[in-house]
Design a protein that fits this description.
The complex is a heterodimer of chains A (200) and B (108). Chain A has 200 residues and is mainly alpha-helical. Chain A contains 9 helices and 5 strands. In chain A, strand 4, helix 6 and strand 5 form a beta-alpha-beta unit. Chain A starts with 8 loop residues before the first strand and ends in a 16-residue tail after the last helix. The model of chain A has no long low-confidence stretch (mean pLDDT 91). In chain B, helix 3 packs antiparallel against helix 4. Chain B is elongated. The mean pLDDT of chain B is 90. The chains are: A mainly alpha (200), B mainly alpha (108).
Chain lengths: 200, 108
């Protein structure tokens, strides 16, 4: 595993799985430097272990494939992704989110952007960041893809397709973050997407 | 764009339900506001009937200006405000120098 420098982009378990399942994963893994926590890494490991025989096309297989890709990359010695250890180690279904909160409480000034998939988790962490007065933006997983797009490492079509896929797999949760990524840029993805991604 | 007004009415067939509402109005201290109950109940059931694809479709129409905010708000509630917060957060993150997040930028 890489040593544990704190890169300015911090990501949680679900956010990492979401980007790892896109067609832009290889570019993203190679080009970005980001940080996650030992608790999120443990959650990724659990997804791999508990979904050993997940059938193709299922949610379980999606979680397993994404988790395995991220783990392989974090454990690669040449990787610039880092995993920081959070103490004491939180437990329970929100352990990943809690570990990000602990990390931000202690090292908030090391980060600029936090990427989380879950909307409630983003709102909760936004409140924490505001309370601490840290200059940190809390956004969804389209942001790492936007970083690639903004640095001309992927095309507009590739950005649209990769982020659009999150709407298909995550429903409203994905739409909430993808819609605002597209509105923010702004980029018209309508010509790059299949008709069924955005219902009329 | 549709307009919305509380002069508009919804009518539906009710037998035992109407009698039950009238009975409750009679026996409950101070009575009950059946119209208010119906409005609140309808909103609750509309939201419960909405699946995620429906929510996306409603927000798409709202963002294109095809339906009023108060109509979208009946169906989506606080999700409308949450979308605004997400938009602000993403725009703020976009203003950063994104090359900071690239692997080579921190000398690794």
């Amino acid at each position: 595993m890489a040593s544990d420098p704190r890169h300015p982009l911090l990501a949680d378990t679900s956010s990492l799985i979401a980007v790892a399942n896109t067609d832009q994963w290889d570019v993203l893994a190679e080009s970005l430097a980001l940080t996650t926590t030992n608790v999120c890494k443990h959650e990724l490991q659990n997804h791999v272990n508990s979904n050993t025989y997940a059938p193709e096309g299922t949610r379980e297989q999606y979680l397993k494939r994404g988790s395995q890709r991220v783990l392989d990359h974090i454990d690669d010695d040449s990787s610039s992704w880092s995993c920081v250890t959070v103490v004491p180690c939180p437990h329970g279904p929100d352990a990943g989110e809690e570990s990000l909160k602990q990390e931000l409480s202690e090292h908030g000034d090391s980060y600029q952007v936090v990427s989380l998939l879950d909307g409630a988790a983003r709102r909760s962490i936004r409140r924490l960041v505001d309370d601490h007065g840290d200059d940190v933006d809390v956004v969804g997983p389209p942001y790492p893809l936007y970083v690639l797009f903004d640095n001309e490492l992927i095309s507009k079509t590739e950005f649209c397709e990769a982020s659009g896929e999150m709407i298909r797999t995550e429903g409203w949760t994905g739409y909430e973050v993808v819609k605002n990524a597209w509105t923010g840029i702004p980029v018209d993805c309508s010509e790059d997407l299949e008709d069924d991604i955005l219902p009329l | 764009m549709s307009g919305s007004s509380y002069d508009e009415t919804i009518q539906f067939r009710a037998g035992a339900e109407k009698e039950a509402a009238e009975l409750l109005d009679e026996v409950h201290i101070g009575g009950v506001n059946v119209s208010e109950l119906a409005r609140t109940g309808l909103v609750e059931m509309l939201r419960r009937s909405l699946d995620e694809q429906d929510e996306i479709a409603v927000y798409e129409r709202y963002s294109r200006g095809e339906i009023d905010e108060d109509v979208a708000r009946v169906l989506l509630g606080e999700k409308i405000d949450q979308m605004e917060a997400e938009k602000d957060a993403f725009e703020s993150a976009m203003e950063r120098d994104t090359s900071t997040f690239l692997a080579e930028s921190d000398g690794e």
